[in-house]
Specification:
Layout: H1 19-35, E1 40-43, H2 46-53, E2 65-69, E3 76-80, H3 84-90, E4 98-101, H4 113-124, E5 130-133, H5 142-151, E6 156-159, H6 163-168, H7 173-196, H8 203-216, E7 254-264, E8 267-277, H9 282-301, H10 308-319, E9 331-333, E10 362-365, E11 369-370, E12 375-376, E13 380-384, E14 389-391, E15 399-402
Parallel strand pairs: 1-5, 3-4, 5-6, 8-15
Antiparallel strand pairs: 1-2, 2-3, 7-8, 9-10, 10-13, 11-12, 13-14
């Protein structure tokens, strides 16, 4: 009998990291757990789930969880049973660490998926000691917390307090490589935005082109959906940075803010620029030049040993002569993420944040200025290096004017 050896096919959904990287991440998380007396960490944030397991599916609209027990060699993924094959496709976990709950738990008024999670914890012998939950995660609800507490009455519950998010703050070289690829996608998408925004063009049609560029990526690698859709406030709405788009055409004599990100294997590189259609008043040029000058000062201060507050203070040197005030923070860390946000929710570039900068921290430096009825955004995504700061993108840092 002839034996035919089929080639081993690696799933394209497998994480772009080796097991050693996941082991390093897991060890760092467990060390923080041990330092804080946490026996079991229950993770609901899809970015943290991805970071520790590689899991990558659009299933965060139903309840799911990754459990990290100090005594276990691997994390455990628990989610909807129909999503378990996706966990097998996209994670580094052994099959025994992938557990699916029946579909009658989904959107039920009679039972909650966290009741299932609690029973799994009991069966594993983990229903004891101190349990940390991500109490402020977008996808961890009050009902989920109540169900877990009912199912684990012998446990002491504490807030995880962004435990995994802080481990994510310092990127590996493999993560930095993905962010560099995301930067190339961001550059392409932003160039598309600058080229397509013109008088008479419908905003929705422009966003269709921008989104296509984000997803298409480059010939060498494709892009993915970003955690935030393109933000595109125009005209007087440019004072409102988080508006998206309508089906109305762009008009001459108005500025448009574009904020978007390239995304590669869930790693983001955000960027913002501003386009003015027609001849901008001098105040637009003046404010744009001030923002760009401030970015230069901020980049000079963005080096190991300085703090997040030091970056903001350096930026403010450009702002102070104008008499203007920027109430919002100057930036935040970014990296792996899912909707609705590409920020990491830990540090902020603002007064009073004494977090010390370390190499391979990554930030979206966004000194947006939003006034009464107009605004300008020019931003950079940066990496802290051994000696300073490296912008990921090489896109022109200026106000773009289209006649």
């Amino acid at each position: 009998m002839t034996t035919i050896n089929s080639p081993v096919v690696t799933s394209p959904y497998k994480p772009p990291f080796d097991d050693a990287e996941f082991a390093r991440r897991l060890a760092a998380v467990k060390q923080r757990m041990s330092d804080r007396g946490i026996d079991l960490l229950l993770i609901a944030d899809p970015a943290n789930m991805n970071y520790l397991t590689g899991y990558d599916g659009w299933s965060f609209y139903v309840h799911q969880m990754v459990a990290v027990a100090l005594e276990a060699e691997q994390p455990m993924w628990i989610g909807r049973r129909q999503d378990a094959p996706g966990a097998r496709e996209s994670t580094w976990l052994d099959d025994g660490e992938i557990v699916g709950y029946p579909d009658h738990y989904v959107h039920s008024t009679e039972r909650h998926p966290m009741e299932f999670v609690a029973r799994v914890m009991v069966d594993r012998g983990w229903a004891k000691g101190t349990v940390a939950v991500e109490s402020d995660a977008y996808y961890y609800t009050a009902a989920a917390d109540a169900a877990l507490r009912r199912g684990l009455p012998n446990c002491r519950f504490v807030d995880a307090a962004l435990l995994v998010n802080w481990v994510r703050a310092i990127k590996s070289e493999a993560e930095i490589a993905l962010m560099r690829q995301a930067a190339r996608i961001a550059e392409q998408a932003m160039q598309t935005a600058v080229d397509v925004i013109a008088p008479g063009v419908r905003q929705c049609d422009a966003v269709a082109e921008i989104t296509a560029a984000q997803i298409r990526g480059l010939p060498e690698f494709g892009g993915e959906y970003a955690a935030i859709v393109p933000l595109l406030p125009t005209g007087t709405a440019s004072a409102a940075p988080h508006l998206t788009w309508t089906d109305r055409p762009f008009e001459s004599g108005a500025g448009t803010i574009i904020e978007l990100a390239g995304c590669r294997r869930r790693y983001h590189c955000p960027m913002a620029r501003t386009v003015y259609l027609g001849t901008p008043p001098q105040k637009w040029h003046d404010l744009a030049e001030m923002v760009v000058e401030g970015i230069g000062y901020a980049l000079e201060a963005a080096k190991p040993g300085n703090t997040c507050a030091d970056i903001e203070a350096a930026w403010r040197k450009a702002l102070e002569p104008t008499g203007l005030v920027k109430e919002s923070r100057l930036g935040y860390p970014t990296g792996v993420n899912y909707p609705p946000d590409w920020g990491e929710h830990t540090m902020s570039l603002r007064p009073g944040d004494s977090t010390v900068l370390q190499p391979n921290m990554t930030f979206h430096l966004i000194p947006g200025m939003w006034l009464d009825d107009w605004g300008i955004e020019i931003s950079e995504c940066i990496r802290i290096t051994e000696t300073g700061a490296e912008p990921f993108c090489g896109f022109d840092r200026r106000l773009f004017v289209r006649e």
